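Backbone Fold Data
Goal — fold tokens
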Amino acid sequence: MEVERSLGFEPVDREFEQPGYHIESRVPGAGRPRFIEVKGRVSGNGAATITVTKNEILYSLNKPEDYVLAIVEFLGDNDHRVHYLRQPFQRRRTSG
């Protein structure tokens, strides 16, 4: 939420509604919404993966231009870094 505000957006927490993202964010007064799913991980713990739900993936595929996966990297001492990934998931192509 803090990062979105610093970028000039107006974020709204939607986490408890479980729509497939945590934050809905807009440009003040105009613009279409951005749907942001937030995942956190501790830096340097060796974890190479982030777990997402089927609902999160499906929502991102339905709104590919508007969906953002935000990875919050916790660095220690209450410090963190946020990485934004646009269109983080792709449809699997099947051969026919």
